[in-house]
Specification:
This protein is mainly alpha-helical. 75% of the residues lie in helices and 0% in strands. It contains eleven helices and no strands. The longest helix is centred in the last third of the chain and has 42 residues. It is globular.
Length: 328
């Protein structure tokens, strides 16, 4: 029971991060399941089965808050589903010993990408034009394949790519990616079901992750408007990097002083990314404040021109400069 409560808490935190950032539900959940000793294919299968429910709840919540661009969803979801099915099939055919470092390597790379991405200022300005299908299709295919083989990756691949395009509001990028992930998670689950059978899904784990995610989904759709993605992305990226480094170090059989040295370097890199993220966030907020101040000053009404000598006096005509009534 204690383990299930912990897993439910993991699902809640992972969904809060995912709904606020547009990524990291699968990364966070899969990373913790791997640390707990779950086989890579079973971890990814269980997380994706839970995601069917959490992404449905998240999509509905984002839709109610107006965070979804349905044109983007329809053009990225189907290629994502094809990539996810293929990725699930590949991961199901690999042995646990071979899959563990492979999956940890993907998660580590995505975590490092989060660190680098959110240590720099996020682009929030938009340019004209619409995202084309020839861009959204390949993006969904790659993101879906990485998502299934790595136990997560749909958001870290799709969300930054859409943000960098500059053609969507950040909240609509997050809402659209989360909504399309419902289709991707379903396709991945079908692939794992074919490759692993029903025994590949850890149903108690799925239930616990699902309960936590369903509780957090509506709150996350609201938090996306107020939570600073800059800090959240850097923090989550560091956790993922350090956690999956453990598996990679073990696979590389690093012993002696090499192991603590690697951990120390990774921790220093994480701290540096957090500092840069704070600075970038401050610069962004300062630039927005200056832009808002400039816009207010440019729209302020100009003072009325002075006409004649009487216009310079701001007191009624019947009063003298001392404020006493004029004699009539």
């Amino acid at each position: 029971m204690r383990k299930l409560l912990v897993l439910a808490l993991v699902g809640l935190v992972a969904q809060l991060i995912d709904g606020s950032l547009g990524m990291a539900y699968g990364l966070t959940s899969s990373t913790l399941l791997l640390v707990a000793g779950v086989a890579p294919a079973a971890a990814s299968a269980s997380v994706h089965l839970a995601e069917i429910g959490t992404t449905l709840a998240a999509g509905v919540a984002h839709w109610r808050f107006g965070n979804v661009d349905w044109r983007v969803v329809t053009r990225i979801a189907l290629p994502g589903a094809i990539g996810a099915f293929a990725g699930a099939t590949v991961l199901s055919s690999i042995s646990t010993e071979a899959a563990a470092p492979w999956m940890a390597g993907i998660l580590f790379t995505l975590g490092a990408y989060l660190l680098i991405r959110f240590a720099r200022p996020l682009r929030t300005d938009r340019v004209g034009g619409r995202l084309r299908g020839r861009f959204l299709g390949p993006l969904g295919l790659v993101a879906g394949f990485v998502d299934a083989t790595g136990g997560g990756g749909w958001g870290p691949v799709a969300t930054p790519a859409l943000l960098v395009s500059g053609r969507m509001e950040p909240r609509k990028v997050i809402g659209s990616v989360d909504t399309a992930e419902f289709v991707v998670a379903g396709a991945a689950s079908v692939g794992f079901l074919i490759g692993l059978g029903t025994e590949g899904f850890l149903l108690p784990t799925v239930a616990a992750l699902l309960v936590g995610g369903l509780i957090a989904a509506p709150l996350a759709a609201w938090l996306v408007r107020i939570v600073p993605a800059q800090l959240l992305g850097a923090a989550v990226g560091g956790v993922i990097v350090l956690t999956n480094a453990r598996t990679l170090i073990r696979s590389a059989e690093l012993d002696g002083p090499a192991r603590p040295t690697v951990y120390a370097l990774l921790a220093i890199g994480w701290l540096a990314a957090l500092v840069l993220a704070v600075r970038a966030l401050r610069r962004t907020r300062r630039a927005r404040a200056e832009a808002a101040q400039a816009a207010d000053s440019s729209t302020a009404p100009a003072p009325a021109p002075l006409v004649g000598a009487t216009a310079a006096v701001a007191v009624p005509a019947e009063l003298t400069p001392t404020g006493t009534p004029n004699p009539r």
